[in-house]
Amino acid sequence: MKRQIDIMLGNNEVPLGELRYDWQGRRESAAFIYTPEWLSNNKRFAIDPALPLVSGFQFHARHSGNGTIFHGAIADTEPDGWGRRVILRDHAKQREVARLDNRSVNSSFLGELDFL
Fold it and tell me: What is the domain partition of the chain in residue ranges?
């Protein structure tokens, strides 16, 4: 599954960047790129120390354990451990209700993007 998400800042009508997400099997990856409009804006700034103001995709390596595939500025929007548990429980509950109603069940794992 591949997804592309525009990254906006506040009420700005021009996206400052784009997040590209790819999930193949159990492998996930993400890359961020600043838009040309953001890079040419005289009020531009880097949204994360690890995301310098350069053109081209910038990747973030997942750190060991519970590390995220996203750069810090994007990962900061993810829920904490408790919030993740709430989302996981809700996902499991929805699967069970669908199963009991004889509806198709989404048995897929939740990916990192599901928590943003």
Answer: 1-77, 79-116
Which amino acid, 88? L
Which CA distances in Å does 79 have to 38, 59, 90, 94, 96? 27, 21, 14, 20, 23
Calpha distance 8→38 (Å, rounded): 10
SS3 27: strand
| Alpha-carbon dihedral angle through residues 67, 73, 77, 81, given to the nearest 10 degrees | 30
Sheet containing 17-24: order of strands: 2-7, 17-24, 27-34, 58-59
47-61 tens-digit pLDDT: 999 999 999 999 987
pTM assigned to the model: 0.67
3 state SS of 60:
coil
